[in-house]
Design brief:
Layout: E1 3-7, E2 12-16, H1 21-27, E3 52-59, H2 64-69, E4 83-84, E5 90-99, E6 109-112, H3 115-118
The structure holds FE2/S2 (inorganic) cluster (FES).
Length: 121
């Protein structure tokens, strides 16, 4: 096993390098979807956009599908601040933050690493 650490703020989840981020989070009981989106989502097809999270660390490059979805409202501008957890492979230790809003497009932090804490890392 080649482990990587996913820091989700209140704990660290250890998974195998190369795991799909959405699957790893769900398996650990850390839902990448907010409120109603935890029930109504595309189940990892990359089309609903509700699994958007902020990530610091080494992950796979955006897929064409992810690029397209993140250019569609309420997301805009393509991959940048947000990535779709269902389209991301964890390649190294990560710090992950989930923001408010049905699609995670807001600014208030729901869970995850506080940006203040990132400055020291
Ligand atoms: S679960 Fe729908 S885009 Fe990721």
């Amino acid at each position: 096993m080649d482990p990587v650490r996913l820091d989700v703020g209140d704990r660290v989840i250890v998974v195998e390098r190369g795991e799909n981020l959405r699957a790893a989070l769900l398996h650990a009981g850390c839902c990448p979807h907010n409120d109603g989106a935890s029930v109504v989502n595309c189940r990892g097809l990359g089309t609903c956009g509700t699994c958007a999270v902020e990530i610091v660390g080494a992950v796979s490059p955006p897929t064409r599908l992810e690029e397209a979805r993140l250019r569609f409202p309420p997301h805009e501008g393509g991959p940048g601040r947000l990535r779709l957890a269902c389209q991301v492979t964890a390649l190294g230790d990560l710090q992950i933050t989930k923001r408010a809003g049905f699609w995670g497009q807001g600014h208030e932090r729901c869970w995850g690493v506080d940006p203040q804490d990132r400055r020291g890392s």
